[in-house]
Each structure stands twice: as structure tokens, then as C-alpha cells.
Amino acid sequence: MQADGQARMAVDTGVAGERDADLSTLNTFGLRARAARLLRLRSAEALAAALATAPQQGPRLVLGGGSNLVLTGDFPGTVLKVEIGGRRLLRAEPTAWIVEAGAGENWHDFVRWTLAQGWPGLENLSLIPGTVGAAPIQNIGAYGLELAERFDSLDAVDLDSGAVRSFGLADCDFGYRDSVFKRSPGRWLITAVRFRLPRPWQPVTRYADVARELEARGIEAPSALDISDAVIAIRRRKLPDPAEIGNAGSFFKNPVVEAAACARLLAAHPALPHYPQPDGREKLAAGWLIEQAGWKGRDLGPVGCYEHQALVLVNRGGATGADVQRIAAAIVAEVEARFGVRLEPEPVFV
After folding, report:
1. Whole-angstrom Cα distance, residue 249 to residue 64?
2. Which residues, in sequence order, are CB contacts of 2 under 8 Å at separation 6+?
3. What is the crossing angle of helices 208-216 and 224-238, to 10°?
4. What is the DSSP string of 225-287?
5. Under 8 Å CB-to-CB from 329, ≥6 apart: which residues?
6. Tell me: the pLDDT tens digits for 304-315?
7. Which of 10, 106, 109, 188 is the most buried (most CB within 10 A)?
């Protein structure tokens, strides 16, 4: 790849493309990396054209907002940057509003738009970075709600065959920060997602931070917008803005352990936050484990553990993917040595 900047390439199908493309501004961690080829896809038709003209061999990377991504080096293949827009109400059913958005829509903007239209249900997921199309891949969740609980269906293109397929809830095989798409990286490109927003709406305020924020605001019967505003305030206090300091949001999953293992940990660490799961296991607070291991606010080279939220790793300036891998491995090792619990990263390493 050429090191002297981007060389534009004309694609006769109308697909916007670049060679030797700088990816540092296309990932929220701000990691230095380049791609051999970058195609910006603003419609499903552009995707079809791109598949017809892109090299059939070599790796592909589907890129949305770049908020759940750790680039460990230059990418030697084709990056497909999803910028498909559009949002609409498909239909109003007696028990739900069915709302659709293009995969390239900004997630938070879409959430606030649904609230402005009077279609609540996604408010607990406010201010999560990224795009609509990336949300099902990770089965994003926060403050007492997971995307799977509001999911209806989606459309995706099989990049191996070019075939278009619709996925229902069962087809996606959602798990905790997991889906069939995450387990098949590079195969599926999501073009549109549909959400089932419940009627009548019921507030989800069981998460302690949300309940405390609403209480502090003197709100006893919150609207969906009240909950969204509360979540936004909480996230802004705890999490750094990627526009100001590079990060990929919560870096580690909250580990889920057997009830007996949780009981043993509580005997030694009574203050350990834990949350019962439907299957009888217990979810532990990864941030608490990391903080107790002494990592909160601590740096290793140009990457640090954020001083206000131990779950977040931040780019102090000039970091590479290798720097992120180094501190992540150190944190995992120390938490496991102290608590016998192995943490797993949330972001995808490429």
C-alpha cells in the first residue's frame, strides 16, 4: 500500500471507493491503520455493484460506525463501509409499532427519532455509539434492556453468494453480546433492521443507576423521554466521548458464572456486585473486578483504563492495536489471578 496518502479510484458502478484508505478516523478508538481498498455503500444497489466489481479473493471487513472494533494492523483486503440510510414506520399493530431503519443510520439518532415520533421502547439504549446495522451483531444492551427484546427482523446479504436473506428473532441466535452474525465475521452485511416497539409501553427502570437518576430528578412516573434523558446523563458522566478521547466503549463483557462460583467469590468479597440470571447463574460486574485489581485510571503505554469507568480502555494518543492488546491481556491476567474469573473482550479484533 502506498504511504503517501489516499489514491482515489473510479468505480463505473457509482460506488464511492478509495485505495490505501486511512481508517484512523473510521474507528472510535482512533487506532492507526490503513485498508487496501475502501468502498462506501449508500444503498443495497451499491452493495450489489460492489460485490460485482470487488475482488472475489481476499479478506473483507464490514464496517459501520467503527465503535466496537480494534484494528490490530493494516487491513489487506476490502473494507465495506455501510452508509445505508432511511427510517420509517412500517405498520402499527395492536401490540406493537414495527419500525425500520437502514443499517447505516446512527443508532442514537434513530433512538431519539423513534421517541420524537411517539414510539417508545428503545430509550434504555440511548447514546450507545455505532450504527443500526451493527446493533444486532453485538446484541447491544444497557441499563436493563437488550436489543433482542425489541427486535423484529432484519435483511442481510450473504457476501459469499450475494443472496439476500431475512432473519427473524430465532434466526439471529442472540446471546449476551453475541449473535450468529458475530460468529460469522465477514460473511453477512446487514442492510436494514426492523424493531418491534411494544404497545402499551411499560418503563424499564429496574437498573439501579436509572432508578437513582430518576429519583434525583424528582420523577416518579417517567416517560420514555425521561428515561432516555436519564440514561444519556449517566453515560456522559461515566463514559468518555469518542470525539474527545478514543475508545470502544465497554471493553469487557460482564462475566457470567455458576451460582456456586459466585457464592465462593461473595464469601471472600461481600461487596462484589452480582445479578441473578434466568438460567440460575450469576452475572458479575467486570468493572468492579478490574477496579479491585488496581487497573482503574492506570495506563500501560499509550492506552489506559479510564479513570471514571474501569470497563473502558482509552487511547491516550498515538495508540496501535498492539498497545490495546497488551493492556487487555494484562488486565485479563490480573483479574483471573485474583478472582479466578476470566474476562472476555467485547470489541472485535481485526
Report:
1. 15
2. 19, 20
3. 110
4. HHHHHHHHHHHHHHS--TTTSEEEEE-BPPPEE-HHHHHHHHHH-TT--EEE-TTS-EEE-HH
5. none
6. 999 999 999 999
7. 188
CA distances from 166 to 153, 182, 187, 193, 292 (A): 7, 16, 14, 10, 44
Distance CA 176, CA 185 (A): 17
Position 114: which residue type? T
Does residue 347 have a cis peptide bond before it, meaning omega lies within 30 degrees of 0?
no
Run of H or E including 217: none
Tell me the pLDDT tens digit for each residue of 190-237: 999 999 999 999 999 988 899 999 999 999 999 999 999 999 999 999
pTM of the model: 0.86
Which residues participate in catalysis according to the annotation? 177, 250, 346
Regarding beta strands 145-146 and 299-300, do their DSSP bridges make them parallel or antiparallel, or are they unpaired?
A: unpaired
341, 257 Cβ separation under 8 angstroms: yes
Q: Are 44 and 26 in contact (CB under 8 A)?
A: no
